[in-house]
Design a protein that fits this description.
188 residues, mainly alpha
Length: 188
Amino acid sequence: MKNKWIILLSFAAGILVCLLAPILLLAVGAINMGADVKPGLIERTLAPWAVDRSVEKHAPKEKNPYAGDPAAIATGLDHYRENCLMCHGAADVVGAELSKGINPPAPSLDKEVKDTPDGELFWVIKHGIRMTAMPAFGPTHTDEEIWHTVAFIRHLPDLTAQERDSLRSVTGAEAHHITPVTNAPPVK
């Protein structure tokens, strides 16, 4: 009977140590949380997995009601240029200087989201992703505006020359921080 209690207490102590060790490491500041530090294996593995599971669970399952709508794509281009281009860039346009310091890096939306369902793109834009540089646009944009942005993101691989020029011609204080790609392939 005594051995059973020793085993049970040892098991409980093992679980407690496994739970307290990470908290202790965080509490004493042992983990460098700088954005310029490459994340460790556990963070690189678990964080994307956790984000994917969360987005899949919470995102609407509906398709974009504005998919392929030229007016929605044009409106989405304006929202993308103003809010997304600086971090995600676009074909022939590199993101702003600040995008080089984002950890994890902002994905290239014209390539990396082709298999992502519309509802998941909508949810990420609306709610953002904690502990990344992806802000929540829900407080400042209507659902319709967010769906328009999703429509434009779907259109990114097929940009016209005029749309590319529009993205390259950012105005205002940030204009000198957005860089056109000089060795870009010819425009379709």
